[in-house]
Hints:
By secondary structure, the protein is mainly β. 0% of the residues lie in helices and 30% in strands. The protein contains no helices and 14 strands. The strands form 3 sheets. Strands 1-4-7-10-13 form a 5-stranded parallel sheet, with no helix packed on it. It has a 5-stranded parallel sheet with strand order 2-5-8-11-14, with no helix packed on it. Strands 3-6-9-12 form a 4-stranded parallel sheet, with no helix packed on it.
Amino acid sequence: SDGDGYGDPGTTELSCGSIPGLTSDGTDCDDGNSDVHPGAEEECDGIDNDCDYLVDADDSDTTAVDAGIMAQDEVWTAADSPYCFTGDVQLAHGYTLVMEEGVKVGGVGHSIEVYGTLQVEGTETDRVHISDLHIKPGPSSTSLFLMDISYAYMEGGGLYQFKHLSFQEGL
């Protein structure tokens, strides 16, 4: 038992009273992981975290980010998190993607190529959480792009390493 208050439906014990470490609720879909149980928050990690038989972008508790070209301005909010990538995405030139404070993004190993503007607007107390997503500029040298990332926690994935990087105060 993983101690999350939910048990393995395949394991039963007969008893006249409660047994320490066991529960009468046998609805856990992974009794070896305390982060996985009915009512848990769905994450974009390839696991059915809330035991509803739906994983990541297929779960109605998440917002799917479909593979392809993002050719419209978008604002991602914490209320619609987590955002789960289903494939690689290109943010088109002339368009802006804003990730507001508290947003959770799961790349599931995919990437976003930025030809337009990416604004990650976390705060010191409410960071944007980005996991397993590769963020990089589009490979075209003729297209200008902007990445403005503030207070983001990145786990896995990566941020493109710039060969020429300069900081300007007051912009």
